[in-house]
Write a structure and sequence with these properties.
Length: 228
């Protein structure tokens, strides 16, 4: 049974993608990020080695960029209103979760949590996947230092045993097909959900507060909260 270390946010998120984004089969999930920053391309490639995928980054400095926002890689899109802070989203994997834990100590304001992300193409729900979100609300967050530290953390976690998944994804195309709750124990999830639904005082006294945290404010452009 896989037990997550990071908390779950109390809300799902929505991510809107452009109609032409090749979601089902993607031939450039790594190199497209390298157009903006070679180091970000390295982060995207190493994420594949950990059975994850870099999806999206939103910050005041970088705008809206990432694999799911490739229309902005050359000219990053920003809101008309100033959005401070930093948000980064990855498809969840156990390896990824363990690799980011040391960064939470190095960057005191950085928060990480798990939730579900609905991928939308206009009004069409394309997919739903479990994601790991990294959030920092500090307007002076050192994004460049963080990306470098994240890249080094991924390198340490992957070590020398690489599967070249990023190479094959680039050459032959990366197929995205999420399986709901693929990283969780279904029995444990059903029991937990039943306890949430009951909402009995006696249950709360036994279990303590619900193991979900309130998700921090998210930038309005591209990523939005979704009610569960």
């Amino acid at each position: 049974m896989i037990s997550s270390i990071l908390p779950y946010w109390d809300q799902n998120i929505d991510l809107d993608i452009a109609p032409w984004v090749p979601y089902g089969r993607d031939f450039s999930p790594v190199s497209v990020n390298g157009l903006y920053n070679p180091l970000l391309g390295g982060v995207a490639g190493l994420a594949f080695e950990m059975k994850s995928e870099f999806l999206y980054l939103r910050s005041f400095k970088s705008g809206n960029i990432g694999t799911m926002a490739r229309q902005n890689m050359i000219d990053p899109q920003r809101n008309e209103t100033t959005e401070l802070g930093f948000t980064m989203v990855f498809a969840y994997s156990e390896q990824l979760e363990h690799s980011v834990l040391p960064l939470l100590r190095k960057f005191p304001g950085l928060m990480a949590g798990l939730t579900l992300c609905d991928i939308w193409d206009g009004d069409v729900l394309v997919d739903e996947c479990k994601v790991l979100m990294l959030i920092d609300e500090d307007p002076f967050f050192n994004e460049a230092d963080f990306i470098q530290s994240l890249h080094r953390a991924f390198q340490r976690h992957c070590g020398l045993e690489k599967s070249n998944l990023s190479f094959f994804a680039e050459k032959f195309g990366y197929r995205r097909c999420s399986i709901s709750y693929e990283t969780d124990d279904l029995t444990q999830m059903r029991v937990t959900q039943a306890l949430f639904d009951m909402e009995l005082d006696a249950t709360k006294e036994v279990l303590g507060p619900a193991p979900e945290l309130k998700v921090p404010p998210l930038p309005a452009m591209g990523i939005e909260k979704a009610d569960r």
